[in-house]
C-alpha cells in the first residue's frame, strides 16, 4: 500500500474510538449539519451531476432531497438511542438456570467502514448516500471509494461533507474520500478496515465480497448486486387496472431503467389484453445512459435478448450513440411464453440494466410459486397485482409465500421503483440480490455497522454510557431484575 493510502487508513483507525464515544446527540447534530450543507449547495451539485450522469434536473433535485432528509432521519434515530439495544441483567443468585452475574450488553460501532459508491444514484447511493449515512450514524469512521462515473461530483460532495463534519466538531479522520479501483481493493484488504459496503454489478460485487471473506481477518461485506424484480399480474388485475401497462412502462423506463428495483419481468395470463405496448413505449422519449461503459453493456444485453429464440418483440426501442460514445435509449419490451423462458433461461434471466423488460405469458397461476422459487431465487423486490377478491380467497397464498422467501420487499400493487426511506423499509434480499441479506435503505441499515458487546460484573466507572445505572445518554434500557426468572412461563397460559 502506498504512503497516501496508508495514512488514510491510519487516520480512520485513529478516529474509531473517539468517534464511537461521541454522544448520540453530538453525532446527530453532525448528520444534520451535513444535510444542511448538501441542501445549501444543491444547485451547484445538481449542475455537476447533470453534466456527468445525464440524469434530469427533476430526478436529481428529488434525489438530493432524499439524501439530506435521510441524514436527518438517521439523526432522529440515534438521538432516541433505542438502536443501541441496551440490555441489563442484574446479578441474581436465585436465577433458575444457575446464579447469574451482572451482564450488560450494547451495540457498539464495528470500526472503520469502506463504502464503494454507486453510479446510478450519484447522491442517494454515493458519497453522502445511505451506506455513508448509516456508517456515520453508527459511529464508524468512513472511507468512500468514489465512482468513476461522476468524479467531479464525488470530489465536491466529499469536500462539503468533510467540512460539515469538521465544523460540527467530529474527530479528524471520521470521513475521507479515495478514487480508483486499485485504491478501493487495497483498502478492502487492509486490516484496519472492519466492514465494507457496495452497490453495483454482480460481477464486481462478488469479487469484492470474496476479497473481504478471504482476508486473514475476514470482515462483513454488504454488497447490493443485481436484481430482476419479477412482477405478477392475475386475470383479475388485468381487468381491474386499466393503467397497468402504463404503470409498468413508467417503472421500466424511469431514469432509463437504470434502477436496481426496475421490474425486469412481468407475468400475465395467456390471452390477457395489455393494450398496444409498442405504441405506449414509443411515447417515451430517449434518455442518456449513465456512462459509455453502462451504455455498451446495455447495448450488448439488449442484443442478446432480442436474438434469443422464441422472443416476440413488442417494442423494439433503439440505442443511439453520439460522438462521445454516450448511449441514448428508448424502451425495449419483448414477450415470451413460460416454456420459452424456462428453456432459454441462460439467455433471458440475466439482469438488463437499462430500459428493457420481458413480458411472460403463463397458463395457470398455480404454477407461479414454483416459477418464482426456481427462476428468481434472490431479489430486492417482487410484486403482485391481483383483484381484492383474488387476494381474499387464499388461492395466492403460496405465491405470496414464494415471493417472501425470495425477496426483500413484497409489493401488493404499485411498482417497485421509488424506494421510500423509512424505519420499516427492507432494501436487500437473498443472494444474488445481496451478498449479505441486510437492508441498505431505512433506519435498520445502521445495525449493519454495529456489533454486540457484553460487559460482565463491570464497575460502573468502566461501563459505556448506555449501560450505566445513571444512564447519562438517556437511552432506553431493557432491564431484567433479580427474581423474575421464578415466574417464567406464567404468561403462556400453561401451568
From TrEMBL:
Gene3D superfamilies per the UniProt record, alphabetical = Aldehyde Dehydrogenase, Chain A, domain 1 (3.40.605.10), Aldehyde Dehydrogenase, Chain A, domain 2 (3.40.309.10)
Please list the residue ranges annotated as the Aldehyde dehydrogenase domain: 4-368
Q: Which domain of life is it from?
A: Bacteria
Q: Which InterPro entries match?
A: Ald_DH/histidinol_DH, Ald_DH_C, Ald_DH_N, Aldehyde_DH_dom, Aldehyde_DH_Superfamily
Pfam families linked? Aldedh
Q: Where is this region: Disordered?
A: 462-495
- Name the residues that span the membrane: none
Which UniProt key words apply to this protein? Oxidoreductase
- Mind listing the GO molecular function terms for this protein? oxidoreductase activity, acting on the aldehyde or oxo group of donors, NAD or NADP as acceptor
Its protein name is Aldehyde dehydrogenase family protein
Species for this entry: Agromyces intestinalis
Amino acid at each position: 500500500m502506498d504512503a497516501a493510502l496508508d495514512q488514510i487508513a491510519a487516520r480512520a483507525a485513529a478516529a474509531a474510538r473517539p468517534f464511537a464515544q461521541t454522544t448520540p446527540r453530538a453525532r446527530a447534530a453532525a448528520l444534520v449539519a451535513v444535510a444542511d450543507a448538501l441542501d445549501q449547495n444543491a444547485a451547484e451539485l445538481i449542475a455537476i451531476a447533470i453534466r456527468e450522469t445525464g440524469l434530469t434536473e427533476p430526478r436529481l433535485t428529488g434525489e438530493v432531497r432524499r439524501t439530506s432528509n435521510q441524514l436527518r432521519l438517521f439523526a432522529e434515530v440515534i438521538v432516541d438511542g433505542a438502536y443501541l439495544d441496551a440490555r441489563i441483567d442484574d446479578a441474581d443468585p436465585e436465577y433458575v438456570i444457575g446464579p447469574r452475574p451482572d451482564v450488560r450488553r450494547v451495540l457498539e460501532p464495528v470500526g472503520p467502514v469502506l463504502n464503494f459508491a454507486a453510479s446510478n444514484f450519484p447522491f442517494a447511493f454515493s458519497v453522502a448516500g445511505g451506506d455513508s449515512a448509516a456508517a456515520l450514524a453508527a459511529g464508524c469512521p468512513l472511507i468512500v471509494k468514489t465512482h468513476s462515473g461522476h468524479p467531479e461530483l464525488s470530489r465536491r460532495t466529499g469536500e462539503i461533507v468533510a467540512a460539515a463534519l469538521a465544523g460540527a466538531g467530529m474527530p479528524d479522520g471520521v470521513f475521507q474520500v479515495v478514487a480508483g479501483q486499485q485504491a478501493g481493493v487495497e483498502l478492502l484488504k487492509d486490516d484496519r478496515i472492519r466492514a465494507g459496503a457496495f452497490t453495483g454489478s454482480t460481477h464486481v460485487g462478488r469479487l469484492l465480497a470474496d476479497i473481504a471473506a478471504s482476508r486473514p481477518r475476514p470482515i462483513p461485506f454488504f454488497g447490493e448486486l443485481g436484481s430482476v424484480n419479477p412482477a405478477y399480474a392475475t386475470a383479475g388485475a388485468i381487468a381491474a387496472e386499466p393503467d397497468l401497462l402504463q404503470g409498468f412502462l413508467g417503472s421500466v423506463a424511469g431514469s432509463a431503467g437504470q434502477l436496481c428495483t426496475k421490474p425486469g419481468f412481468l407475468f400475465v395470463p395467456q390471452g390477457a389484453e395489455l393494450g398496444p405496448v409498442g405504441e405506449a413505449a414509443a411515447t417515451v422519449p430517449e434518455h442518456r445512459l449513465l456512462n459509455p461503459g453502462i451504455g455498451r453493456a446495455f447495448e450488448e444485453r439488449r442484443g442478446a435478448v432480442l436474438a434469443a429464440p422464441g422472443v416476440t418483440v413488442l417494442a423494439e426501442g433503439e440505442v443511439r450513440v453520439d460522438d462521445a460514445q454516450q448511449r441514448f435509449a428508448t424502451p425495449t419490451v419483448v414477450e415470451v411464453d413460460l416454456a420459452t423462458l424456462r428453456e432459454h433461461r441462460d439467455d433471458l434471466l440475466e439482469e438488463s440494466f437499462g430500459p428493457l423488460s420481458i413480458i411472460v405469458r403463463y397458463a395457470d397461476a398455480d404454477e407461479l410459486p414454483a416459477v418464482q422459487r426456481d427462476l428468481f431465487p434472490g431479489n430486492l423486490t417482487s410484486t403482485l397485482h391481483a383483484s381484492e377478491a383474488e387476494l381474499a380467497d387464499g388461492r395466492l397464498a403460496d405465491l405470496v409465500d414464494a415471493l417472501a422467501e425470495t425477496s426483500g420487499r413484497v409489493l401488493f400493487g404499485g411498482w417497485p421503483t421509488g424506494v421510500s426511506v423509512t424505519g420499516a423499509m427492507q432494501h436487500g434480499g437473498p443472494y444474488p440480490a445481496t451478498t449479505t441479506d441486510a437492508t441498505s435503505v431505512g433506519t435498520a441499515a445502521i445495525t449493519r455497522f454495529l456489533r454486540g458487546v457484553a460487559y460482565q460484573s463491570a464497575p460502573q466507572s468502566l461501563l459505556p454510557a448506555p449501560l450505566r445505572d445513571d444512564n447519562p445518554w438517556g437511552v432506553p434500557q431493557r432491564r431484567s431484575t433479580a427474581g423474575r426468572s421464578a415466574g417464567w412461563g406464567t404468561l403462556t397460559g400453561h401451568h
